[in-house]
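Good morning,

Attaching, inline, the backbone tokens for the sequence recovery test we're adding to the shared suite. The designed sequence is right after.
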């Protein structure tokens, strides 16, 4: 397959995927004529469909089509057995026409399987060699058509009715906007308390953005220091731990106070001894200085010496005149 044609087929299948919801593996409904041409030209039908549709495929054949293969004469179609064996490898699609004595024509059978209320309900890709079947299926929107032309598998461009539907949906997207069109799940009411709301009422209103001056940059503001909280102890050991901490703190406090008092008392006693020694030394110095100064004063200064009082015979003091 040439690159230009392959690119066009890939683009075409992407349009079918987006507009009509086709998904891999693609369900490809084949008829008896394309199986005969594939065996005649020795074409790998499943591989060719996969390359043409650019994805995994699941070939399917109706009961009427395989009955048409069994009715072929061996003289006119020498590859009858090969075609039947190839058809048996495909998945059998029930058309509910097996009760009839003679199979329906492939046109009626395939239209009854593909078309439901004017649409391709099950999203079938149709591979057929019959021009009348392809002509009728072009009137149904969203039906990819594939056929073989001179041992080359070709996919028809999108039919006009399919292209119109695709264009209409694309315009609708521009008007409404690209939104999720899937139905939203409805929330059920709560059984307990009866406080629940339905899906439309349960949606909370979005908070409006506050207008006005913005606050400072949080990265440039100095963070406040949080007060350190004491580590929480387990429930069983919490009270005991607090009591032990309190008793230990009291003992340490009492011990510290006792040590401080003893140290202050010892310091006071040491200061008293030092002061007493200093006073004693001072007295000694004063005594020595007074004794030295007294002798010198009596001899040189002419001061009157102190005379001790004299007592008489009767014990009375006698006055002595100077």
């Amino acid at each position: 397959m040439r690159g230009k044609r392959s690119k066009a087929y890939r683009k075409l299948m992407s349009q079918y995927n987006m507009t009509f919801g086709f998904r891999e593996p693609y369900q490809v409904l084949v008829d008896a004529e394309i199986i005969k041409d594939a065996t005649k030209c020795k074409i790998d039908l499943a591989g060719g469909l996969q390359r043409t549709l650019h994805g995994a495929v699941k070939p399917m054949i109706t009961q009427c089509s395989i009955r048409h293969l069994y009715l072929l004469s061996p003289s006119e179609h020498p590859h009858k057995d090969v075609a039947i064996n190839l058809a048996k490898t495909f998945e059998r699609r029930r058309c509910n026409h097996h009760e009839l004595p003679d199979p329906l024509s492939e046109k009626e059978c395939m239209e009854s399987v593909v078309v439901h209320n004017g649409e391709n309900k099950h999203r079938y890709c149709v591979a057929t060699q019959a021009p009348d079947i392809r002509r009728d299926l072009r009137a149904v929107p969203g039906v990819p058509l594939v056929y073989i032309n001179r041992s080359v598998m070709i996919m028809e461009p999108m039919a006009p009715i399919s292209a119109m539907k695709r264009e209409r949906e694309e315009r609708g997207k521009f008007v409404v906007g690209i939104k999720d069109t899937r139905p939203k799940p409805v929330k059920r009411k709560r059984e307990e308390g009866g406080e629940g709301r339905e899906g439309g009422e349960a949606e909370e209103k979005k908070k409006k953005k506050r207008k006005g001056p913005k606050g400072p940059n949080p990265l440039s503001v100095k963070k406040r220091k949080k007060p350190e909280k004491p580590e929480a102890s387990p429930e069983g050991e919490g009270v005991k731990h607090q009591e032990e901490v309190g008793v230990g703190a009291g003992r340490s406090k009492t011990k510290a106070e006792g040590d401080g008092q003893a140290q202050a008392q010892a310091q006071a006693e040491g200061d008293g001894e030092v002061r007493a020694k200093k006073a004693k030394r001072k007295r000694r110095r004063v005594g020595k200085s007074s004794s030295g100064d007294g002798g010198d004063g009596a001899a040189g200064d002419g001061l009157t010496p102190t005379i001790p009082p004299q007592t008489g015979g009767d014990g009375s003091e006698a006055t002595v005149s100077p």
